[in-house]
């Protein structure tokens, strides 16, 4: 089993009991819990904290640092959130119950943490993803010397592609500093995204266009002008596109681009959370409707059961009453027959018939047969047993 838990909820749990005891209740190792805490930026009690607390010594509970752009706020844990642990957290598991800070506040906090970002001039300290591209390009370069086919040609030899890689390198290193994880795919590194905390944002970094036109005139130099655009559509009040301008290359905008990506990720995250919360609410409402429907159907079945039982009792009552009346009719007929045949038939023959006829009357009679006692006992049992 798995469950989701927010940053604040995990903080409440790890400061409520020792990690060893907590891990046993959840069903995972204390190392795994510590790993989740590091991922969400949740401080944990120092070694000896619980022993000091039990001994009555003064201990310090580290406060939960304020959330920043890109901070993981929710984690999925493979284990069980017991009812006891559930009572220690605020709100539904995995749903943020704390007041949501304004994005402007998170942005300013992120800006201070980030500092100024500059694009490296070379590749002396490449990000691992960029280093991998450079190694692959070097392999292609050597292949191209031996076999100068187009598919062996290095991808990043041109001044434009080198500049583009340097820009990506600066971007990736900046995000690595604040806990972001870049992703690039494709031989020419055109499928790009950044993952920060719970959010992922795709983006484009490329030439404005080889044949861009302005005022009806072709501008070939646009092929060397870089633009950066955040994917996923526009966001109200947020800049999502930057490009080279006269006297202001894209590299000078790198700090704002990093911040813009982080802000866009937060907007995307909040939109997803709102959609997820709406989906959860619909699920809960549907569960309520299903429960009401099940209850109504059960009540209808119970009403039908009671109606069928009452009809069966009524039919049985009428049947017993008819049988009782028929039994009395048979007895009266037997008496009349005895009187009519007195002296006309041998007594032993008449007596045999009389005994048979009276036995038949008793068999039919619910009182004489004792059947009515069984019926009454069964009804008492049905009324005393739960539905």
TrEMBL record:
Q: Which UniProt keywords apply?
A: Coiled coil
Coiled-coil-forming residues are 281-309
Is Coiled coil included in the keywords of this UniProt record?
yes
The entry's protein name is Uncharacterized protein
């Amino acid at each position: 089993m798995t469950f989701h838990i927010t940053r604040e909820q995990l903080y409440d749990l790890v400061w409520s009991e020792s990690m060893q005891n907590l891990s046993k209740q959840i069903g995972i190792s204390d190392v795994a819990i510590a790993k989740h805490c590091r991922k969400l930026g949740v401080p944990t009690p120092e070694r000896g904290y619980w022993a000091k607390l039990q001994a009555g010594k003064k201990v310090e509970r580290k406060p939960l640092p304020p959330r920043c752009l890109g901070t993981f706020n929710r984690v999925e844990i493979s284990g069980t959130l017991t009812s006891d642990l559930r009572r220690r957290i605020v709100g539904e598991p995995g749903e943020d119950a704390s007041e949501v800070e304004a994005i402007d506040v998170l942005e300013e906090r992120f800006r201070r943490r980030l500092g100024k970002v500059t694009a490296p001039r070379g590749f002396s300290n490449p990000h691992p993803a960029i280093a991998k591209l450079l190694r692959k390009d070097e392999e292609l370069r050597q292949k191209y010397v031996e076999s100068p086919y187009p598919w062996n040609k290095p991808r990043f030899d041109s001044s434009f592609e080198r500049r583009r890689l340097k820009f990506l390198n600066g971007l990736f290193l900046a995000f690595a500093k604040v806990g972001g994880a870049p992703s690039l795919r494709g031989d020419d590194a055109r499928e790009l995204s950044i993952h920060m905390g719970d959010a992922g944002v795709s983006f484009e970094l490329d030439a404005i266009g080889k044949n861009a036109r302005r005022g009806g005139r072709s501008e070939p130099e646009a092929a060397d002008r870089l633009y950066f655009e955040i994917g996923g559509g526009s966001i109200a009040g947020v800049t999502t596109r930057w490009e080279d301008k006269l006297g202001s290359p894209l590299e000078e905008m790198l700090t704002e681009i990093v911040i813009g990506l982080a802000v866009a990720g937060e907007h995307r995250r909040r939109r997803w959370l709102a959609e997820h919360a709406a989906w959860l609410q619909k699920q809960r409402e549907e569960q309520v409707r299903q429960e009401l429907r099940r209850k109504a159907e059960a009540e209808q079945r119970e009403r039908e059961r009671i109606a069928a039982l009452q009809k069966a009792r009524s039919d049985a009552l009428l049947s017993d009453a008819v049988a009782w009346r028929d039994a009395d009719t048979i007895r009266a007929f037997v008496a009349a027959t005895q009187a009519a045949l007195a002296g006309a038939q041998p007594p032993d023959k008449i007596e045999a018939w009389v005994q048979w006829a009276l036995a038949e009357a008793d068999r039919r009679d619910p009182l004489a047969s004792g059947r009515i006692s069984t019926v009454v006992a069964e009804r008492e049992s049905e009324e005393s047993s739960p539905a």
